[in-house]
Amino acid sequence: MASAMLIVVLLAIASPLVLASDPGSLQDFCVADKASPVLVNGFVCKNPMDVNAGDFFYSGLNKPGNTNNRLGSNVTVVDVNKIAGLNTLGISLARVDYAPFGVNPPHMHPRATEILTVIEGTLLVGFITSNPQNRLISKVLNAGDVFVFPQGLIHFQFNRGNKKAVAMARLGSQNPGRIEAKDVFGSNPKIDASVLAKAFQVDTKVIDYLQNQFGMNNNN
Question: Where's the Cupin type-1 domain (predicted)?
Fold first, then answer.
């Protein structure tokens, strides 16, 4: 009886029905038809006969982003909204420029794991694990170093040097999304100040100040 049960378990583990994952592509590509009124999880496919090289091309990541802002950083995202051919492929990337002592502030990507490669400069990076530990996993990176930020976890990068820094990020989604820690104070419409004051155990005047501060975005 025990042997029979073991065989059943092993067959279940080996079954492709149990090992659920994203399905493989059923076609070479599905270039996004952004003009379609049909709403799906992603974008409707353009007619393959109307596809051209421009649907798979983007130019400009060689150009530094403008870091003349309060954060001293700039994120240039290349996702499905920039390259229609990324639709259904599950990847995107971004260039991040940092002024001296600039920061890419704490944020998370709800749909993607990120792998970051430092091209120039020195960065202090880290992410915070989920409850109940809430551990900070952090490291100093130099040019050529690579670091991974797991999907959905809050993470950051800080240029700790007095020279500019540049990094390239690869993300495991055509549209990874970005939610910053500050967004709780910068939502539209605003969250009632009394709610946030109770949640953070501060005076509503502090919340009013924070809500007035966090209205900017450093993404292209």
Answer: 59-208
